[in-house]
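Render this sequence as a predicted structure.
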Amino acid sequence: MYHNQLLPLATGIKVTSISKGSIRTTLLLNPPLNEQQKISEILSTQDKVIELKEKLLKEKEKQKKYLMQNFVTGRKRLKGFNGEWKKVKLGDIFDYEQPTQYLVKETNYSDNF
């Protein structure tokens, strides 16, 4: 309603500049009360679903954090895996590459890409 009906009536940048007369004569779809109530029930149910999904997501994030803290540190082990974890130097498993060749030298970008 705001975008389709009220905003075009605005006489200035702020919506507060809509005249009372324009608001009074603007037509508004108004379903019967029982339909309004049903719409309200549906939207309330969806709000509850969203709230529950957000709670579930937070719980899953907590679970992931717990698993990361325990599996990555070796405090907990997966079934079927045993033996000690080895301590290795990063230099033994990673190669360092000087990043100079990847640094951006030009900031004048083309709009063609």
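Summary. The chain is about 50% helix and 0% strand. Residues 2-77 form one domain.
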